[in-house]
Class I SAM-dependent methyltransferase (Pseudomonas shahriarae), 277 residues
Amino acid sequence: MLSFLRKLTAATPAPVAAPVAAVTPVAEKVDPFMLGLHDAQLSGWFNEETGELYKGFPVSADDIVIDVGCGDGGNMQFCGRRGARLIVADIDGDKIEQARQRLSETPARSVECHVTDGNPLPIADGTATRVVSTEVLEHVDDPAQFLAELVRVGQSGALYLLSVPHPSSEDLQKDIAAPAYYEKPNHIRIISEEQFKTMVSDAGLEVISHSQYGFYWSMWMLLFWEAKVDLSNPDHPLLNHWANTWQALLSSPRGAQIKDALETVVAKSQVIIARKP
């Protein structure tokens, strides 16, 4: 359910999206998912120039990258374009097959796929130089066990890119979202900033940075619940006007400054970059 929020790169374009026009007519429909990708790039995701999947998380052809909870492989598509060796794992076999097909079209050194619940991961100790797991910990029954497996498969010095929903957005939606959104197999816990940092540190990783982003998606989701439309075709005036408004804001002279200010108040996700000693 709502897996697009877990993997923002479902249709990640290779180049950074070009700036939009200064004024967007309200009548012109904006693709909310492509706008979300552009917004994510502004927050530090998918930087083709620096080779960073996320700010502070560079990927090169020399890396062995594991993505646990990979979905259909959006994040790893970026890593594949860098020429890295890729290992993907997810509990959903259909998603893994989609990831396999997508990643086979990249210049990745190799692609290895696993259907698994992560307990344990069918991957040898000390395999990866980079470990990715985005928007997964809020779903799993035992976060400590899950993190222990992520740590086990990383080499000494490996970098970790981990994210979970930010509590500001989760709390905002609690009384508005569909009840199933906060029931298994969806979000069974809300993780505070301090809890997230403690989880990662207790797993034996050194936290390098902790950031947050995604005001656009937080507001979009709030309106989505009210619009009561199908996610495959989220066409509703509330959502269309919001996407147009956000695109116009990003095009304004102080759009980036306003975006940053809003994301300190309400963010869709929090991201930790960590290192294995």
